[in-house]
Amino acid sequence: MDIVTSEGCFTADVAGAAGAPLVLLLHGFPQSRHSWRDQVPALGAAGYRAIAPDQRGYSPGVRPDPAAGLSAYGVDRLVADVLDLADAAGHGGTPFHLVGHDWGGHVSWATAHRHPDRIASLTILSRPHPAAFRRAFRENADEQQHRSRHHKAFHDPATADALLEDDGRRFKRNLANNGVPEASIADYYSVLGTRPALESALAWYRAAGSLTGTEVGTITVPTLYIWGDADATVGPSGARWTAEHVKGQYRFEILSGVGHFSTDQAPAEVTRLLLEHLATYRR
Question: What is residue 122's predicted lDDT score, i.e. its pLDDT?
């Protein structure tokens, strides 16, 4: 299904009645809307309107050329996309539930801080609050600088070609090494397996410069933070320090033995926690 905004058409998976409470789910890198394959139908069955878009650059209909300027992939524009998508879904000016993983989590933190009146509840997977992440990186807690080494690599102009060569051998291997099933990898590669798509996805990192530089203040909306204790990209310090930056109702759930890609590795547990959280703050 296409969700049409003033910026173009976002490809999305959708479930549930149009008038039901909205749950907007934002994927991370190098994934796509498919990362919510288990959550979207479950949310629809539970009485929500679930929308999981391929985000800017991932959707062919919203893919500005990064060579023309990176501002189209800056955090201001990414946050604006979130509100545009909610408005296009018929929830203009009304609160909705926001769920984000990895980069989608980063954008979700920023959206919840800037527009708390629009957010009924917030759910974040893996990505710590930006201030907690910045502290962990600065202090190199749990070797966070090493865990985040891929951020620097993604600024290399040769990265896209390296990941795509030999039918995406490195792209697919990196996901498989992190416990992502083969069928899920095929879904993600179906979206990102071309140079224009992958360059646009990498433009998120390049536009940000350094993710440690993003300023996000205290979160006041009800928040669920889910982190897997085998996450290779986020250490326990950044995860635990996140609580210091949420003043609204806060719940921290640790998935034992689960890595960064929790919706691929523990989809039923993620769905259970998400439904519990949403039911508490359903409007």
Answer: 98
* 26 beta partners: 100
Query: What average pLDDT does the segment 116-144 reach?
Result: 95
* H helix runs in the chain, sequence order: 39-45, 75-86, 103-114, 130-139, 144-147, 149-153, 159-176, 182-192, 195-208, 236-241, 262-265, 267-280
Residue type, 35: S
- 8-15, strands of its sheet edge to edge: 2-5, 8-15, 49-53, 22-26, 96-101, 119-125, 223-228, 250-255
Question: In order of start, what are the domains of the chain with their CATH numbers?
Answer: 2-280 (3.40.50.1820)
Sign of the C-alpha dihedral, residues 73, 79, 80, 81? positive
Q: Which phi and psi angles does 180 have, rounded to 5°?
A: -85, 130
Cβ–Cβ contacts within 10 Å for residue 40, how many?
23
Q: Give Cβ neighbours of residue 50 (< 8 Å, ≥ 6 apart).
A: 13, 14, 15, 16, 23, 25, 36, 39, 40, 41, 43, 44
Band of residue 221 on the pLDDT scale cut at 50, 70, 90:
very high
Q: Is the pLDDT of residue 215 over 90?
A: no
Nearest CA to 23 out of 104, 77, 129, 103 is that of: 104
